[in-house]
Amino acid sequence: MHALKKEEGYPYAFNSAACASCQGKCCTGESGYIYVSQTEIQKISDLLEMRVEDFINKYLFKNGYKYSIKEKKYNDSYECAFYDRASNGCTIYDARPVQCRTFPFWDYYKTRVDELKLECPGITND
Fold first, then answer.
1. N or C: less crowded end of the chain, CB within 10 Å?
2. Nearest 5°: phi and psi at 13?
3. Tens-digit pLDDT profile for residues 55-73
4. Domain regions of the chain by residue span
């Protein structure tokens, strides 16, 4: 049984058991940015056993002064380059960026719980 995860200051909780059946809604959908820091770039490169330069060229693009992970188009949707549709999971899970590790506890959703519930079936009002 999965325990509900709660974070101070957030008016909701998260049940990660919902991830098994949601088809990666947090990794797919509208196009967006998945920002990575230099430390995260190094960790993901190490996990993939790639040189940093090769990793950047293959998987990242620059948005302003930040790097973001590229997306793949799938039907009418976009998905993270590291989302694996077959397993419904992340191929870099152990080195995923902070942005991914902290979802769904983003400041943006503190006042947009109804919007978050549409994206994430694991959200509860507990």
1. N
2. -125, 170
3. 999 999 999 999 999 999 9
4. 1-26+103-126, 29-96
